[in-house]
Design goal:
Number of domains: 1
CATH architecture: Sandwich
Radius of gyration: 18 Å
Mean pLDDT: 96
Structural class: alpha+beta
Bound molecules: N-oxalylglycine, fe (iii) ion
CATH class: Mainly Beta
Number of strands: 14
Largest sheet: 5 strands, mixed
Order of helices and strands: HEEEEHEEHHEEEEEEEE
CATH topology: Jelly Rolls
Low-confidence stretches: none
Helix content: 10-25%
Strand order of the largest sheet: 1-3-11-8-13
Number of helices: 4
Strand content: 25-35%
């Protein structure tokens, strides 16, 4: 399509305007703890600032966006899982489903699922020790150019050298557990609307390892999308990183946001995301 046609399509998509929390540029390297750090060390040394952005409806363009062209994809997929909060059922039933979906979407020969997270929003989660994982209201990318390949070395040490000769991606599959989802939807940023300089490598400190993620600086060029009233038979794929240098979309920022048009009594968000290593042999 022509640039003119593309501009018109974007202008006609329905949208909401909502705040996105971006990293305030800083001299130090951003560092966030996943647990209560030793006395005297702040949980995060980074500051975020809210920027109002336009977040467009992704459904009308779902047929024309792709993981390689935009860094995300929206697909239809019904899961057989009855209880997503049952880890055993998720591993037994959902992991094979996700593996098949990601293989079909990418053409990859191998998909290694390494992690999943369920989230259930509860009020005042910060003050409760055993609160469920909450929506993440900070623009970020889970893995970086460095930590993507490092995950392969950590998780598949015997095969890593061979696997890293080929193309490796980290792709998340995200879906609501209860729908239609109105509260705290997930927004994804078209990966081709970012400048690599917007991405700031950041430490994510776990008790036994330090992961690297990208924090993201504001740039008015960012194009944001979400799926209004997302259903449980829909899934968002988002590409965190990709070793293929020539592909337009390699790093996809994302964040939960508070939708100003959502009713006050919208049921609290429940969601699940699965993280996968995706392999294309050399
Ligand atoms: C993710 C993610 C945040 C959320 O799936 O990687 O950042 O609020 N999720 O669901
Ligand atoms: Fe994330």
């Amino acid at each position: 399509m022509t640039l003119q046609e593309h501009t018109e399509i974007l202008a006609n998509l329905s949208h909401v305007v909502a705040d996105m929390n971006y990293l305030v540029p800083m001299d130090e390297r951003p560092r966030n703890y996943t647990f209560e750090p030793p006395a005297g060390i702040p949980r995060s040394n980074a500051e975020h600032a809210a920027h109002a952005v336009r977040i467009r409806d992704a459904r009308p363009i779902a047929g024309s966006v792709s993981l390689d062209a935009n860094g995300f994809a929206l697909l239809q997929h019904k899961s057989a899982v009855k209880d997503f909060f049952d880890d055993e059922e998720v591993r037994r039933v959902y992991y094979p489903e996700v593996e098949a979906v990601v293989k079909a979407a990418t053409g990859a020969s191998r998909v290694h699922i390494f992690d999943h997270t369920t989230r259930r929003r509860v009020p005042d989660a910060e003050t409760q020790a055993d609160a469920p994982r909450q929506p993440v209201r900070r623009v970020h990318i889970d893995h970086t150019a460095k930590s993507g390949p490092q995950r392969v070395r950590d998780l598949l040490p015997d095969e890593a050298d061979e696997l890293l000769k080929g193309r490796v991606q980290v792709i998340n599959l995200w879906r609501p557990i209860k729908g239609p989802l109105l509260d705290s939807p997930l927004a994804v940023c078209d990966a081709t609307s970012i400048d690599f300089k917007d991405l700031v490598p950041s430490d994510l400190v776990y008790p036994h390892r330090v992961g690297e993620t990208y924090s993201v600086k504001f740039n008015p060029a960012h194009r944001w999308y979400y799926v209004p009233r997302m259903r449980t038979d829909e899934a968002l794929l988002l590409k965190c990183c990709d070793t293929a240098a020539g592909v337009p979309a390699r790093y996809t920022p994302h964040s939960a946001f508070s939708d100003p048009t959502a009713p006050a009594d919208a049921p609290p968000r429940e969601s699940i995301e699965v993280r996968t290593l995706v392999f294309h042999p050399a």
